[in-house]
From TrEMBL, chains A, B:
Pfam families membership: NUDIX, WHD_NrtR
TM regions (residue ranges): none
Superkingdom, natural source: Bacteria
Organismal lineage: Bacteria, Pseudomonadati, Bacteroidota, Flavobacteriia, Flavobacteriales
PROSITE patterns, sorted: NUDIX
Name by which UniProt lists this protein: NUDIX domain-containing protein
Domain Nudix hydrolase: 9-140
Length: 228, 228
DNA sequence: ACAAAAGTGTTAGAACTACACCCATGC
DNA sequence: GCATGGGTGTAGTTCTAACACTTTTGT
């Protein structure tokens, strides 16, 4: 009964939900699938697990091949196993979500692979159970950003308070009060205010900040806990 | 490159962390493994995914075979894929944690299978990466009990405030103030106080409560959020 | 009468929410 | 000079945390 039975072997896939932020909206990256079945339809970025790699390795490989990006925040969040989720063959899929700075991704590679950014609110119909994956990833991202500062990974290195607020607004999908937001962020004391302004968004210009990783680490606590 | 390649098929296992509560301590159920490798060593309850079932089905089947229990709270939380995690053969394992009322589990079945409850704090060395699984499951359980009332699944139907407090104390691994705890629970308004006392724990006796599922559902909100 | 656990409220401090005006600059 | 987005503080309310004594009853 408890036996290593080769009959029960299955194919394992990895699918990645890639979140980006363009100062307006939370975005997600999809590709036009280039093989059957469902060739030509929108899909998450995915691929099969190879014999000699871990799921994390596979997720990084797949993401790297598509975008050229390395060393970004990635988290595994669920494994999907409905019998008929893939009509060709029994395939189990483990999904990851990743957070990338949209300015850094390699535009050529994504275009070459028929990839396209969509607003989260305008996601198209996706193949298989990928819409479900997206929904779960979004919920997880929401919860995660409340307890960990991973959100900063979506921003350029230097950013304004306004960008940060828009980012949180688009992740949480609600409007926040400007003053309360700034007060709360400042009270956390994990940002460094630069003597430098971003002049692109207004005539007055707005101060740029950078995330202070050292200060954050020094707090060595998991209670970032940004309740918004 | 993106191909259905039979070479890459792997075995998929399911391992379950089963939490119970005996009015003193949070407990976890382990079994003595009865096949090679590592035969005779402590292990999580687990088994292999069969061709025609989902991971959820497999987890329920495995748990049912061992304990006779059905329809309990179970949640998938991570899939483990280190190349050498199982020395015999490449095996990926998806882990679940389950929450059961320790009084209801079928004692004969567990004894027959060499299963044994351990205090969470006294867990033995487990095979493969099972100690890691346990640690992750414990963290997940902690977070989950803060935002959802699944903890009640660990208690008998009727329970005292003191039992409930001890349960939360052992899940969160910290002492709580009796008065603050009662006030907070009462303010949630999801318990029904019975006109019945439990006389086993003191001469005075303490009131019994039951969880009011209807009231909880009626609040139809996810903000249970018990900050302790 | 005493031991053992149950039950019960108040208060000070912290955190959260709501809210409105002036500033700097490019046009 | 005016339109645009940037920046800032306070007061009322709610939530949290700390804290000690009385009740009941079996022995």
């Amino acid at each position: 009964m408890n036996a290593y039975n080769p009959q029960d072997k299955v194919l394992l896939a990895v699918d990645c939900i890639i979140f980006g932020f363009d100062n307006e909206d939370l975005k997600v990256l999809f590709v036009k699938r280039d093989f059957e079945p469902e060739k030509g339809n929108w899909s998450l970025i995915g691929g099969f697990l190879k014999k000699e790699e871990t799921l994390n390795d596979a997720a990084n490989r797949i993401l790297h091949n598509l975008t050229g990006v390395n060393d970004i925040y990635m988290e595994q969040f669920y494994t999907w196993s409905n019998i008929d989720r893939d009509p060709v063959e029994r395939t189990i899929s483990t999904s990851y979500y990743a957070i990338i700075n949209i300015q850094e991704y390699n535009e050529k590679l994504t275009e070459h692979h028929n990839a396209k950014w969509f607003s989260l609110t305008e996601a198209p119909h996706l193949i298989f159970d990928h819409n479900e994956m997206l929904a779960k990833a979004t919920r997880r991202l929401r919860r995660r950003t409340s307890i960990s500062p991973i959100g900063f990974g979506l921003l350029p290195e230097k950013f304004t308070m306004r960008q940060l607020q828009k980012l949180y607004e688009s992740i949480l999908d609600k409007k926040l009060d400007k003053r309360n937001f700034v007060n709360k962020i400042k009270s956390m004391d994990i940002l460094i205010k630069l003597n430098e302004k971003d002049m692109t968004s207004s005539t007055k210009g707005s101060y740029l900040y950078i995330f202070d990783q050292e200060k954050y680490d020094a707090k060595q606590t998991n209670d970032f806990y940004l309740k918004l």
